[in-house]
Fold this sequence. Notes:
Helix content is 0%, strand content 47%. It has strands spanning 3-7, 10-12, 18-25, 34-39, 46-51, 57-59, 67-72, 77-82, 91-96, 108-112.
Amino acid sequence: QVQLVESGGGLVQPGGSLRLSCAASGIAFSIKPMGWYRQAPGKQRDLVASILSSGGTMYADSVKERFTISRDNTKSMLYLQMTSLKPEDTAVYYCNVPFSNEPWGQGTQVTVSS
Protein backbone atom coordinates (compact mmCIF):
# COMPACT_ATOMS: atom_id res chain seq x y z
CA GLN A 1 0.00 0.00 0.00
CA VAL A 2 1.27 3.40 -0.98
CA GLN A 3 0.75 6.08 1.61
CA LEU A 4 1.74 9.72 1.35
CA VAL A 5 1.20 11.91 4.38
CA GLU A 6 1.80 15.64 4.11
CA SER A 7 2.24 17.92 7.07
CA GLY A 8 3.59 21.31 8.06
CA GLY A 9 1.04 23.62 6.50
CA GLY A 10 -0.58 26.48 8.28
CA LEU A 11 -1.38 30.16 8.24
CA VAL A 12 1.53 32.48 7.55
CA GLN A 13 1.88 36.16 6.74
CA PRO A 14 3.15 37.33 3.37
CA GLY A 15 6.92 37.17 3.34
CA GLY A 16 6.94 34.37 5.88
CA SER A 17 8.26 30.84 5.66
CA LEU A 18 6.99 27.31 6.11
CA ARG A 19 8.54 23.89 5.81
CA LEU A 20 6.35 21.09 4.51
CA SER A 21 7.06 17.42 5.08
CA CYS A 22 5.90 14.31 3.27
CA ALA A 23 6.24 10.86 4.77
CA ALA A 24 6.16 8.14 2.12
CA SER A 25 5.58 4.45 2.68
CA GLY A 26 4.80 1.45 0.52
CA ILE A 27 7.06 2.79 -2.21
CA ALA A 28 10.65 2.29 -3.30
CA PHE A 29 11.23 5.88 -2.30
CA SER A 30 14.97 6.02 -2.77
CA ILE A 31 14.81 5.22 -6.50
CA LYS A 32 11.79 7.34 -7.39
CA PRO A 33 11.56 10.96 -8.37
CA MET A 34 9.30 12.92 -6.07
CA GLY A 35 7.41 16.15 -6.40
CA TRP A 36 5.31 18.72 -4.65
CA TYR A 37 2.02 19.77 -6.19
CA ARG A 38 -0.39 22.45 -5.15
CA GLN A 39 -4.02 23.11 -5.88
CA ALA A 40 -5.87 26.31 -5.18
CA PRO A 41 -9.68 26.41 -5.14
CA GLY A 42 -11.08 26.28 -8.66
CA LYS A 43 -7.68 25.60 -10.21
CA GLN A 44 -5.88 22.55 -11.47
CA ARG A 45 -3.28 20.72 -9.47
CA ASP A 46 0.14 21.90 -10.62
CA LEU A 47 3.59 20.46 -10.09
CA VAL A 48 5.68 23.17 -8.49
CA ALA A 49 8.87 21.32 -7.57
CA SER A 50 10.43 17.95 -8.24
CA ILE A 51 13.55 16.11 -7.23
CA LEU A 52 15.29 13.12 -8.74
CA SER A 53 16.44 10.18 -6.68
CA SER A 54 19.96 11.50 -7.14
CA GLY A 55 19.02 14.94 -5.87
CA GLY A 56 18.62 16.99 -9.03
CA THR A 57 15.79 19.50 -8.77
CA MET A 58 13.44 21.54 -10.91
CA TYR A 59 10.93 24.25 -10.07
CA ALA A 60 8.03 25.99 -11.66
CA ASP A 61 8.81 29.59 -12.52
CA SER A 62 6.25 30.77 -10.00
CA VAL A 63 8.22 29.36 -7.07
CA LYS A 64 11.80 29.31 -8.31
CA GLU A 65 14.23 31.14 -6.03
CA ARG A 66 11.71 30.95 -3.19
CA PHE A 67 11.06 27.24 -2.64
CA THR A 68 13.57 24.47 -2.06
CA ILE A 69 12.72 20.80 -2.42
CA SER A 70 14.82 18.18 -0.67
CA ARG A 71 14.65 14.56 0.34
CA ASP A 72 16.03 12.18 2.91
CA ASN A 73 16.20 8.77 1.31
CA THR A 74 17.16 7.06 4.55
CA LYS A 75 13.88 8.22 6.09
CA SER A 76 11.68 8.18 2.97
CA MET A 77 10.90 11.83 3.64
CA LEU A 78 10.34 14.68 1.21
CA TYR A 79 10.48 18.34 2.20
CA LEU A 80 9.56 21.70 0.76
CA GLN A 81 11.11 24.77 2.31
CA MET A 82 9.03 27.77 1.33
CA THR A 83 10.25 31.31 1.84
CA SER A 84 9.06 34.76 0.82
CA LEU A 85 5.54 33.42 0.70
CA LYS A 86 2.91 35.28 -1.28
CA PRO A 87 -0.88 35.17 -1.09
CA GLU A 88 -0.90 33.41 -4.45
CA ASP A 89 0.95 30.51 -2.83
CA THR A 90 -2.22 29.73 -0.90
CA ALA A 91 -3.23 26.19 -1.81
CA VAL A 92 -3.40 22.62 -0.63
CA TYR A 93 0.02 21.08 -1.11
CA TYR A 94 0.49 17.43 -2.02
CA CYS A 95 3.47 15.18 -2.56
CA ASN A 96 3.59 12.37 -5.07
CA VAL A 97 5.65 10.61 -7.69
CA PRO A 98 5.45 13.02 -10.65
CA PHE A 99 3.16 11.94 -13.47
CA SER A 100 2.29 8.68 -11.79
CA ASN A 101 -1.04 7.20 -10.86
CA GLU A 102 -0.15 6.72 -7.23
CA PRO A 103 -2.90 7.71 -4.85
CA TRP A 104 -2.94 11.19 -3.42
CA GLY A 105 -2.61 11.93 0.24
CA GLN A 106 -4.79 14.33 2.16
CA GLY A 107 -2.55 17.28 1.42
CA THR A 108 -1.67 20.08 3.78
CA GLN A 109 -3.22 23.53 3.64
CA VAL A 110 -1.00 26.55 3.23
CA THR A 111 -2.66 29.90 3.69
CA VAL A 112 -0.70 33.09 3.12
CA SER A 113 -2.64 36.05 4.41
CA SER A 114 -2.28 39.12 6.55
